[in-house]
Amino acid sequence: MKRGYRLQCVGLLYKALQDHTTQDNWKPSQATASIWQVIDIEHAGTVADPIPFSLYLVVYKDKYYTWADVLYLCTRDSRTALQNPPDQLIGHYFELA
HSE on the CB side for 61, CA within 13 Å? Predict the structure, then answer.
């Protein structure tokens, strides 16, 4: 796989972070977080169209995300994929909207 390759898996869209030779057991997961990153290309990140948060998603300042039917505002860019949900990152990356 080439860097940037997109893969749909278990209802989420992933992007390859680096070139790699894929193997059957290298499906996107916590174990392959250095290879695959969740991306969202369907939502604007506004109050009217928030991004559904998923683990292993990079978040961006001033974008809105939903998690467990709650709306959050991102207060800073994460730069790396997050491994905790927004409700555990209040005051770090998110605030309630």
Answer: 5
Distance of CA 81 to the CA centre of its chain: 6
Closest CA to 38 of 47, 27, 48, 50: 27
Residue type, 58: V
Residue of 50, 58, 37, 59 lying closest to 97 (CA atoms): 50
* Residues comprising the chain, all counted: 97
**What string of pLDDT tens digits covers the 97 residues of the chain?**
899 999 999 899 999 999 988 887 778 888 888 889 999 999 999 999 999 999 999 999 999 999 999 999 999 999 999 999 999 999 999 999 9
